[in-house]
Specification:
The chain is mostly helical. The protein has one domain. It is 69% helix and 2% strand. The protein has seven helices and two strands; from the N terminus they run H-E-E-H-H-H-H-H-H. The protein has helices at 19-49, 69-107, 117-120, 131-143, 151-173, 176-185, 187-221; strands at residues 58-60, 63-64. It has a two-stranded antiparallel ribbon. A hairpin with a 2-residue loop joins strand 1 and strand 2 (63-64). Helix 1 runs antiparallel to helix 2. The longest helix has 39 residues, at 69-107. The chain is elongated, with a radius of gyration of 23 Å.
Length: 226
């Protein structure tokens, strides 16, 4: 009898679960969208109420008049929206970190951008115009190089850039009292910005679902549970 030495199969790639992270990110995006809808409602309420006879909250030269009830409630809505947006950003980046690691393990190739760019790509001027989209696109292309990039990725990124230019910039270039004054005098740019940001959140949720589903199909084909 001739004994044959069997060589054990190499271990498969170590993969991270993505389903839970995707659900958390989508839930956070839905909550962020609702928060921005609430801001839009308050912008409209301020516009319809009209500026008080005492003038805007910021009177200039460091003088601020007491806020009325509607203005005070807008401060609460704006603060809640900012907190939700911060949580949403963390949930999104946690999901992106997981699917990015899985894409690296499945493809066997290093990502085009190193780990620090997963965070810095959003805040470094100029490069933040393309690096985050490239990181997301690489997640898909590294696993399915033969497939076209899903259109929802481009929709998400286009809306995000529009939000940076016309929404986040408008909202955060001024403090909350200055935004209230804008709502009294020129509410339509604020409402348009709110709509773009809500649309960007919806597109981001659809993108997460699309890419997570695609990666799960690839993982299932390899017999690895998610």
């Amino acid at each position: 009898m001739i004994e044959q030495n069997s060589t054990p199969a190499p271990p498969g790639p170590v993969l991270r679960p993505v389903r839970g992270a995707a659900r958390c990110a989508v839930a956070a995006l839905a909550l962020a969208a609702l928060a921005w809808v609430a801001r839009a409602v308050w912008h409209l309420r301020l516009s319809l109420a009209g500026q008080p006879a005492s003038g805007p909250p910021d009177q200039g030269e460091g003088v601020h008049r007491p806020l009325n009830a509607l203005e005070d409630s807008y401060h609460l809505v704006a603060s809640f929206g900012s907190a939700v947006t911060a949580v949403c950003a963390l949930a999104f980046l946690f999901w992106l970190d997981q699917v990015r690691d899985n894409a690296k393990a499945l493809s066997g190739t290093a990502p085009r951008y190193g780990y620090p760019w997963l965070w810095l790509g959003w805040i470094v001027p100029v490069v933040n115009l393309w690096i985050p989209r490239s990181v997301v696109a690489d997640v898909h292309r590294s696993v399915f190089p033969e497939r076209r990039l899903p259109a929802v990725v481009n929709w998400w990124w286009g809306l995000w850039l529009a939000g940076l230019a016309g929404g986040v910039g408008i909202i955060y270039a001024d403090d909350t009292d200055e935004v209230i004054a804008r709502a009294y005098s020129e509410v339509w740019p604020l409402l348009a910005a709110d709509l773009v940001i809500v649309a960007a959140a919806v597109a981001a949720a659809l993108m997460i679902h699309t890419l997570t589903t695609a990666q799960r199909q690839r993982l299932d084909a390899g017999g690895t549970p998610t």
